[in-house]
Fold these 4 entries.
Entry 1:
Amino acid sequence: MKTYLIQRGKFEDRDYKKGLDSIVELDYMGAAEFEFGALPKSLANIRDGINHYTYTVFTLNSYIGSKRITVFHPTSMVNRDILIYLMELANNKMRLHERSDFNTYLCPSKYDLEWQAKRGHSTDFWWDIDNDIIFWKSNEIFEDKFKSIISIKPE
């Protein structure tokens, strides 16, 4: 499984927003490919097939310890293929339009840790727009909110 467009985001409680925007702040990606309806189209694809989606938690090992990633994906995707995909992403083996920061989460350098400390926190949420899958640092509170929002179609 390959991708080119991965939207980054951060967990954020934003009660003044609706839908996914109320629980995640999406980074500005700075490219037209992320604009002009790409995210709403992917979200519509997910919601149209919501009965064929599931949650899988993967534990990825790095030199700094184990990290748990929750992946929201179509049931037709094989877990082994998703794990390979995550590892390729973590090891910068995919050519992406913009950086994903996924490798920074799994194996941060000293520079990455210093930069994250200055920024407040790092990326915790990723949305593969090409494959209509969403994944995040495992977090039960976020996941409960996500589950309550993802299947609700806009008015």
Entry 2:
Amino acid sequence: MALTLPSFAQTIISASNSSWIGQNISVIGLSVSNGPQYSYNIPISGRISFDPNNYNKVSSVTRLTIYARAADGFDNWTNPTSNGTFSLIVPDNGEYSIFVYPSTLDYLNNSTNIPYSIVYPDESNPFVQYVTNDSGVTGMVIPTQYIQTGLPMNATPIPPTVTPSSTTATPTPGLTAVAVLAVLGIVTAIAYSRK
């Protein structure tokens, strides 16, 4: 079976009239004493899709983490709200690699018994965003890929039928014939030894 690798890279130029609603924001790497100094706080916001019926024990979209990595390696991150929306602040205009952790959630299609995965952008294959002005980016939709990970089963497995055990002992077929042959063999052996 051939697997395809998802590709998420694309260019999005933010609109100058973008707006931002700030919620649930976490910023990492901006307070390093000798690190880069930024003069901007650029908003990025959007939405991520999520199906809770996965086998990875990720019960809510709020358990996903969305990262925005700048070209200099600084990560800003946030967790989506319960309706899948997110917002975070990045330090400056430029290119950002957007990725999600966990990046793969596994599922089973119950009508066809085909296992599949929903794959979000990860560190090795991020979703690239270009922030070109101070208004940032709004309405970003984190892309997903559907990947079939197994072959369909021919039929749904059915447990074997178990018959109730009987309380009366029933003879095993052929046991009487074996007993008769054993007795004849003993009688023949005795008769032959007397000769």
Entry 3:
Amino acid sequence: MMYGRRPLTKLETGLYAGLAAIFITVFARQMLGYMELAERAAMQATLMNTVTAINIRLAGETLNQRRNNADWTQSNPFYLARMSPANFVGELNESPSSSGSWRYDSENGELVYTPRLHFKLQTSSGRASLRFRLVVLPAGAYNLVPVTPYQWE
């Protein structure tokens, strides 16, 4: 039994549908921002893990006196780290790669990341792809540094 209930009018139904659409739009926009933050964090974690693995390998080879003083800066960092993320598509010189993936540009010796979401990404080159080069620090350790400056908030 329904006590005191009446069916909704077309105006009320339209109003409720409009409010639901506004809430869904605001929620979706907020979620895209969080998804972009998560992608940026995953990209940075991949860079840090790769550099750490390369430097651990360097330290291990130095301690075991197997270091042959070869220049690793023109090698694929994922190969040197003996690991690669699931979204690594391989050594591809042509651009662009699929979004959300890593590739190694062997022609330029650069690791390239093409993000899925790049609303808040600003690069000096104007491209959405981020490029990193393996360099030797003065202390002898390796680091992946951006080829062109970028800001990703």
Entry 4:
Amino acid sequence: MQLQLPAQLPAGLPANPRPLLLVDVDAVSHGLAEGQERTRATNATVGAALETAQTAARSFNADHYQVLWAASTATARCHLDLITRSANNLWAIRRGLDGADKALLEELNDLVDARTAATRKWHAHGRPHADIVILVGQDHAYAPAIASLRLLGIPTWILQPGRYIAADLYRAAMHVTPLTRALAA
């Protein structure tokens, strides 16, 4: 499924920006099941959402992009065949209800630290490992890191997997696109 690029891309974004795709698979699995009798979406629905997220990253005409899929152990068990079928992707599987959040927050905070260190130098050597972040998630835990990235010049496009998104995350993001709308089209 093709998502339309956000209309308000920052002016300073390179011609071929390097996207960093961060996916909270717990949020995808639970969010896409909202309003149904089940608590988790089917493998087919989650797989379609993951492919849509990858299509969003490819839509920037980037030569390559990095991906981190993050899931709790319970979600990993539920969607094990999706994990084993994904080639050349990095999965972070963590214990606990907030396992996926913690893995993605580590990556976001590393990016904030890297950009902060680069701006402190007179001449930054090379570009950061991401020019734009595409986050598939909806939790308020991501908001401080996303706000920091925005202040440092790295915009974040949120693909919202459920009906709701934390207000502070919504405000911190450059753009928010409901993933359910993209999957329905």
